[in-house]
Amino acid sequence: MTEIASTAVVEGGAELGNDVRIGPYAIIGPHVRIGSGTTVGPHAVIDGYTEIGKDCRIFPHAAVGLEPQDLKYRGGRSWLRIGDRTVIREFATLNPATAEGDATLVGSDCLLMAYSHVAHNCRVEDHVILANAVNLAGHVTIGTHAVLGGVTPVHQFVRVGAHAIVGGGSRVPMDVAPYTLAAGNPLETHGLNVVGLTRRGFSEETINALKKAYRIFYRQNLGVDEAVTRIRAEVPATPEVETFLAFVLTSERGLTR
Predict the structure, then answer these.
(1) Given pLDDT bands bounded at 50, 70 and 90, which one contains residue 11?
(2) Residue 36 near residue 42, CB atoms below 8 Å
(3) Residue 31 Cα distances to 9, 78, 219, angstroms
């Protein structure tokens, strides 16, 4: 059964699923949709055209779906969509997209820690962890199972690939390739995320193929096209290697090397 605290404000038009719990002094706007089993903590604000999935947890004072912090925003219907079982901690802020009809997307099973920020038009895929005070500028893409350490700003239009880890306190002005470890100021790549890949069940053969691709791409002082040609000639074409190659070939911001 849905529970709404007596001091909460749920505006007409909001849609709440079964077993939703709304805490004291929380505010839910008229265009919000919240899936079953989700809890919204005290003083949280959820507004705009925001869709939240099932069994999410929104902690106190989070600000979800308020208009984007973008001077190009002219009003209109733009979306923030959040998947299932995602946790949004205290004082985190998530904004919808800028242009009418566009959406900011946050996947399922994510953890967005306190004071993290997801700006307009970002795409955060499933199982992502943003530690405390990670700040994503507009149009950033974070791949599945990526982890960003605390107090890390990510420049607009940057991509962080799947299963990558970025160390805390780094500044991310360029793309970070899938499966890699990156840290520092200036940001540098420091090898593969072998521990994370092993924990997620990647085979030894897959990890060895990624290691070989990594050595060619990062250790041979080759240009991108030459490195890709060598990798395709010398490394087994596993799906993970192909994911790595597709990422580096489509980089527009440039790659962290």
Answers:
(1) very high
(2) no
(3) 13, 11, 51
Please write the tens of the pLDDT for every residue from 226-245: 999 999 999 999 999 999 99
Partners of 82 in beta bridges: 52, 106
Q: Which amino acid is at 27?
A: I
The domains of the chain, with CATH numbers, are 1-139 (2.160.10.10), 196-249 (1.20.1180.10)
Amino acid at 49: Y
User: Which of the 8 DSSP states describes residue 98?
Assistant: S
Measured CA to CA, the distance from residue 175 to residue 27 in angstroms comes to: 37
Which pLDDT does position 44 carry in this prediction?
A: 99
DSSP state letter for 237: -
Q: Where are the alpha helices (DSSP H) in the chain?
A: 194-199, 204-219, 224-234, 239-249
- Give the per-residue SS3 of 22-90: ECCCCEECCCCEECCCCEECCCCEECCEEEECCCCEECCCCEECCCCCCCCCCCCCCEEEECCCCEECC
- The arrangement of strands across the sheet holding 49-52 comes to 15-16, 33-34, 49-52, 79-82, 103-106, 123-124, 141-142, 159-160
Q: Which helix (H) or strand (E) holds 252?
A: none
The two tokens of residue 230 are 């060598």
150: amino acid identity, one letter: G
Positive or negative, the CA dihedral 144, 149, 151, 157 is negative
Cis ω before 42 (30° cut-off from 0): no
